Amino acid sequence: MTLPYKHTKIDISKNTQKEPWFLAINPNGRIPALTDTFHDGQTIRLFESGSIMQYLISRYDTPSHRLSFPRDSREAVEMTNWLFFMNAGVGPMQGQANHFTRYAPEYIEYGVNRYQNETRRLYGVLDKHLADSKGEFLVGGKCTVADIAHWGWVSAAGWAGVELEEFPHLKAWEERMWARPALKKGANVPDPYKLKELLQDKEKMEKYAAESRKWVQQGMAEDAKKNAERSSK
Question: Is 114 exposed, middle or buried, given 0-12, 13-18 or 19+ CB atoms closer than 10 A?
């Protein structure tokens, strides 16, 4: 889809996502979030990546179906399966693996093992699916929102302490995705995508994790304080 759009860089290290203007779009204070002009001419808000992707293909990817399939097709159902697999599985589990591996104030073996192993299990599901289907992408032989939804997580496997080499079919899929010019174009908004480069340098990776750990812990402390104030009222 070649839609015109405007983007706003959200600096999560400064808690921009917790500012009132952003909370009016996503009351959960998380990225991504989107506003659009709806059919009635009024602004509509969208949050949660799966919801955003479903809206975009429903509104703007018909009848071309460049990133989706006709609504009543078997492929559309399968695509939705994998989209929600990311939203309910890979994203939450790998997100926690990221936290315990990079952001926790101390090493907690149980947390690291629990979420790294669950991320590996989910990657194994994806790897087997790609092997069994003999396709280059997750569904129907073409790149869809199901692939795009997973790529951001899979490309960052090393940040969660997971080696993508363990999953050859998934690794090959990630490389195919990264070779797509449109995906690279999107990944470089609002800033150049440097995580792949970072993951190749252990010293830089540990330095970046240490810097990130500070503002993650500060944000958690601020949230805890607000929760305590709210519960005391």
Answer: middle
* CA 183/CA 185 separation, integer angstroms: 5
Q: Report long-range pairs for 4-11 (Cβ below 8 Å, ≥24 apart).
A: 7/189, 7/190, 9/190, 9/191
Assign domain 74-188 to a CATH class: mainly alpha
Report whether 205 contacts 199 (CB < 8 A): yes
The dihedral over CA atoms of 2, 7, 13, 18, expressed in degrees to the nearest 10, equals -120
Question: Which residue carries 């995705």 as its tokens?
Answer: 177
Summary mean pLDDT of the chain:
97
Beta partners for residue 44, in sequence order: 36
In the prediction, which pLDDT does 158 show? 98
Alpha-carbon distances, residue 213 vs 13, 93, 157, 195 (angstroms): 10, 19, 18, 16
How do the domains of the chain map onto residue ranges?
12-47, 74-188
**Assigned fold of 12-47:** Glutaredoxin (3.40.30)
Check residue 96 and give its pLDDT. 99
Beta-bridge mates of residue 33: 47
pLDDT at 130: 98
Please name the residue ranges forming H helices in the chain. Answer: 20-23, 49-60, 74-85, 91-98, 109-133, 145-154, 168-178, 181-187, 195-198, 202-231
